[in-house]
Amino acid sequence: MPLLSYAEAAERVQRFILALVEDRSVQDQAQGQDGLGAAAVALATAAGRVLAEGIRADRDQPPFDRSTRDGFACRAAEANTHQLLPLTGQVRAGETPAGVAGSGKLAAGEVWEIMTGAPVPEGADAVFMVEHAEHSFAVEGSSSAERSSSSVRLAAPRTVTPGENIVARGSEARAGDLLVSPGVRIGAAQIALAAQCGYARLQVARRPRVAILATGDELVPVEVVPGASQIRNSNGPMLAALVNAAGGEAMVLPAVPDRNDPLDAAIQQALTADLLLVSGGISMGRFDLVENALTRAGAQFFFGGVAIQPGKPVAFGQLPRPGQRQLPFFALPGNPISSAATFHLFAAPLLAALGGDSSPLPRFALAELAGEWQGKPGLTRFLPARCDFGLAPQVRLSPWQGSGDIAAFARSNCFLVVPAEAEQIAAGSIVQVMLA
Amino acid sequence: MPLLSYAEAAERVQRFILALVEDRSVQDQAQGQDGLGAAAVALATAAGRVLAEGIRADRDQPPFDRSTRDGFACRAAEANTHQLLPLTGQVRAGETPAGVAGSGKLAAGEVWEIMTGAPVPEGADAVFMVEHAEHSFAVEGSSSAERSSSSVRLAAPRTVTPGENIVARGSEARAGDLLVSPGVRIGAAQIALAAQCGYARLQVARRPRVAILATGDELVPVEVVPGASQIRNSNGPMLAALVNAAGGEAMVLPAVPDRNDPLDAAIQQALTADLLLVSGGISMGRFDLVENALTRAGAQFFFGGVAIQPGKPVAFGQLPRPGQRQLPFFALPGNPISSAATFHLFAAPLLAALGGDSSPLPRFALAELAGEWQGKPGLTRFLPARCDFGLAPQVRLSPWQGSGDIAAFARSNCFLVVPAEAEQIAAGSIVQVMLA
After folding, report:
1. Cβ–Cβ of B340/A189 closer than 8 Å?
2. Residue B160: what pLDDT?
3. Phi/psi at A10 (nearest 5 deg)?
4. Which residues neighbour A333 within 8 Å (Cβ) at sequence distance 6 or greater?
5. ipTM computed for the complex
6. A24-38, B279-293, B397-411: which has the minimum mean pLDDT?
7. Which residue of chain B is at minimal alpha-carbon distance from A189?
8. Buried residues in A227-252 as b, exposed as e (16+ CB within 10 A)
9. B137-151, B193-207, B379-393: which has the minimum mean pLDDT?
10. Where are the beta strands (DSSP E) in A230-351?
11. Residues A250-257: what's their mean pLDDT?
């Protein structure tokens, strides 16, 4: 298969995702229910999951005209006269406005003391801040009874405008409004919103199950002391961590040697998953059997080879299975940094979509390049790098011995993006980094 | 207390962290053990935790001269003659080089077929790629026995240089090298490294316990239908999610009304934690009792008020407790966006340090501003915003009704940083975002 550009390969993954989402919504309509497979979880355990229901306001937000300051509820026109106004009520957060007369209403020419978060009494149209008030006490004293007979004025030359320091009832949301849609990954802000709206439990999407299959005659499990020509299987645990962090549920299969029968058997075993990740065995050699095994299993390939570094041999396709939609798979290169980079670039977006997450992946941001980069054009590069993420974010390439250099990778925290046409990037340039 | 600039406030938190780290290392030396409190966890569950031990190479990496390509192990000088060279051996990943003669050594004038990841035989100093080879078969056929009698040459005008397509033994790491230091938060790359080096379990730091205390007469729990002047406690669940995401263990105390006795009791209850977060009750009003309650508990304040928006009233200090180092606390403003922003700015770095995490927080990156910003100078602003995190990352302010507008916050995914001196930021400018 010919090499695709990074943009073309990303586009093919996106097309697959769009078809998936469309298919799912057709299915939802037919079944009259959520096709994701959802479960209710307690709010305290919902962070990191994907919303399978929308969050709606159960009442207006704020539910009353809310004071944003400690100060005095007033009529702005009266306050702006800078006359002393009698203090005839007080309202704290959590209280229903009553006032001395018990009417719940601010009478003309009066002011009430009000606290941040408290409901503004009827009749008031502004709050002036306690810092801008001048007091006059009929009787000097500190008890509430004594102070209730005092007067207050807005200190000149300050003025207030109608609405000042008040958030009007319903200005954030109206009862019944959809505030967050299904498909959003739940973070602290969504937890706060759900709490505000009375969701003690949330419907979340089922985590997609991802079969992980590392291949290679040289691999031994982490507990085993490797022979002279062997290495430990690091891709299995690494991909499991990537899958879990991306919201999936990793099913790590035992590493498979470079032989047809065990490879075929492992692929059959993976058919129960929602996504299959194979690592290794996809370059040019005689013992690179993965592509053949996938072909024997009936694979349709969407691409096999992308003009990127690292990760050029990455392949994407799907496998038929009886009575079920086809199983999407990625065959990731065996070198660990290649495997991780291609996971982020191609597998993570599809995994997110399978889990009902509508936020686009991978995530990129900008930073200033420390040191310059020079190289041959032709490949879009995603090079292990370290960004300091300070207020003046600076990213520096991690020195590495190639895509097998796990130690260099473990000292990195992002990938520097080098566009395919670049031959040189000057120190101090603003560059793209892929957030890992 | 006078308002500090953002930089001064961040500096005071950093100074506290430095003292903490220094104190801890003195303690470690005295006790001859790790002061963090560490526990061993299985590699598969270590992601997100903080390393309490260094990861060391258990052998050279790579452990042998490793071929990075499928191709032919050769002597570069001989290959560069473009003569046909007899193919006298084959080595796959996981195999010990043997060769037809069984010597394990590449004899002069010969080449061996070699696979990606396989050990390069003694005598070879380069690998030329299978894509660059021309074959001559003594007997045409496909079986291994027949092909072992064939010859191969490097196709002219290609040449190889000594070392090409080989990663030399030990070039990534030497046996015993410290590859990752304690204090690193474990991600997929560190999992891969630990697996490579044979760590089936990892020593990780204990999660700091963070007491969370929301205050306010107006608060009811999420399960309760609030009265007309009440609202549900959203800061408690939100701060718990923030704490857990930052690697802490949230201890959510019941919300406390604005009265001295319950507040004093709750603060006493929190003294067993590693960090205390109080939200609400710290602005100017008569019923803002948190500062007084902390003062009664013997608080030393490092700051109380920072020139930021939102979150200006945030306070930082510590509380004495018998027989133990003082308990650091943050009094966060009650408005949810203020609470979240000040958590990220000040509490998260200290929480990370308490958990042994040496990576600096908060994390900032750059993006292009969509739309312009105008406002008054004087406060460093951290405004809820939405970044698309695409290849051309663009950030846009979330329209909001102030720092109580949780719905706007839930539609955001970062904070736009506006420097204190800015009065205007043009559309298309490269701006800082705080990653949440």
Report:
1. yes
2. 97
3. -60, -40
4. A279, A280, A282, A283, A310, A311, A312, A313, A314, A339, A342, A403
5. 0.94
6. A24-38
7. B410
8. eebbbbbbbbbbbbbbbbbbbbebbb
9. B137-151
10. 231-232, 249-252, 275-279, 300-304, 308-309, 315-319, 327-332
11. 96
Q: What's the count of helices (H) and strands (E) in chain A, helices before strands?
A: 10, 28
| Listed range (A78-82, A286-290, A421-425, B416-420) with the worst mean pLDDT | A286-290
Give residue A46's region: left, alpha or beta (phi > 0; psi -120 to 50). Answer: alpha
Q: What is the DSSP letter of A435?
A: E
Of B47, B402, B430, the CB nearest to A430: B430
**Phi and psi angles of residue A407, each rounded to the nearest 5 degrees, phi first:** -60, -40
The residues facing A369 across adjacent strands are A395
Is residue A192 less than 8 Å (CB to CB) from chain B? yes
Q: What residues contact residue A149 under an 8 Å CB cut-off, 6+ apart?
A: A87, A137, A138, A139
Contact between B395 and B433 (Cβ < 8 Å): yes
Residue type, B66: R
Give tens-digit pLDDT for B294-313.
Answer: 999 999 999 999 999 999 99
pLDDT at A144: 52
How many residues are recorded in chain A? 436
SS3 per-residue string spanning A126-137: EEEEHHHEEEEC
Has residue A150 got a pLDDT over 60?
yes
Question: How is residue A82 written in tokens?
Answer: 């800078």
Rounded to whole angstroms, the Cα distance separating A408 from A402 reads 9
Burial classification of residue A200, based on how many CB atoms lie within 10 Å of its CB (0-12 exposed, 13-18 middle, 19 or more buried): middle
Mean pLDDT of the region B186-200: 98
Chain A CB contacts of B96 below 8 Å:
227-229
Residue type, A395: V
Strand order in the sheet with B249-252: B249-252, B209-214, B275-279, B327-332, B315-319, B300-304
Is a pLDDT exceeding 70 seen at residue B138? Answer: no
Please name the residue that has the structure tokens 């204990």: B206
What does the alpha-carbon distance between residue A304 and residue A103 come to, in Å, rounded to a whole number?
76
Residues on chain B touching A394 (C-beta within 8 angstroms): none
Write down the pTM of the prediction.
Answer: 0.94
The closest alpha carbon to A124, from A174, A176, A88, A172, belongs to: A88
Distance from C-alpha of A365 to C-alpha of A363, rounded to nearest angstrom: 7
Residue B81 has a pLDDT of 97
Which among B117, B283, B407 is the nearest to A218, CB-wise? B117
Q: Which residue has the tokens 């943050």?
A: B330
